[in-house]
Design a protein that fits this description.
Blueprint (H helix, E strand, L loop, with lengths): L22 E2 L6 E2 L2 H22 L1 H25 L9 H37 L5 H4 L6 H29 L13 H25 L5 H14 L20 H5 L4 H13 L7 H28 L1
Helix pairs in contact: 1-5, 2-3, 2-5, 3-5, 3-6, 3-9, 5-6, 5-10, 6-9, 6-10, 9-10
Amino acid sequence: MAAPGASPSDDPAAGTGTGGAATTRPGSLVPARSAAASSRSALAGLIRRDLAVLGKNFGEFVGRTVMQPFMLVFVFLYVFPSIGQGIGSGGGTAGESAFATVLVPGVVSIAIMFQGIQSVAIQMSQEFGFTREIEDRVQAPCPIWLVAVARVLSGAAQGLISAVIVFPIAAVVHAPGVHPHFDINWLIVLTLIPLSCIAMTSLGLLLGTTFEPRNIGVMFGFVVLPLVFLGGTYYQWTKLSMVEVGGFHWLQVLVLFNPLIYVTEGMRAGFTSVSHMSLYVVYPVLVGFCVLFLGLGLRNFRRRVLS
């Protein structure tokens, strides 16, 4: 109780005396954290936990990240040219080098996409399935949606690491005489790669909360494979204008619904000087896909947790 004549602001039990900006726990002089501060702390803790697990299994992470991109460039840029079946070999080594220039940014793009699906969709399907680890995560002192955001951000960090690992490998693995030509624009690279990582991990969140664990194989067969083959990994979007029916460039229009095409075209703009989709289209559409995938994924995540 305050001493006679003392104002309420002088009473330690009454708080700080600054208009209620901080509160205290009963029987304690330590100010209680706000809900926002608790949420930020929980979010940081969840991300640190995922990155700590990544650090302990970094060798496995590198192995699964590198294997598919390495095999792609090894077969297309080393084996095929070495046996005289190189793509673009009709134009000699210059044609093969031109194909290599187109392929390498595409390889980085699919590395980011697969990392987003593996680190979010596959892990989340396991957590909702037999491990039930999701029940522990949602007990964190933060809103349910923030648990999903933490997984998206930690997955995006892994996607960023995969891009850093894959690009040097894809750039140097090629047959003698085959030389990809790079013209790196660092502003595009440093802005587009993080945006692409968030877009692909948001897609992973949507897929992981949409498909049941037993249907993961269906997800790869009917969603992931079409994304890869129609995502501009092996060709430029501008070249698809040659595929037409009655003057209608149907394939060039169809692939616009594929989020991966914007990642690959953006990567070509950042790493090479070959023709590519306008960046005035790439950036806004990728942001739109981020908002769409994240919004739908968070809605599905909440439904799955509360069901």
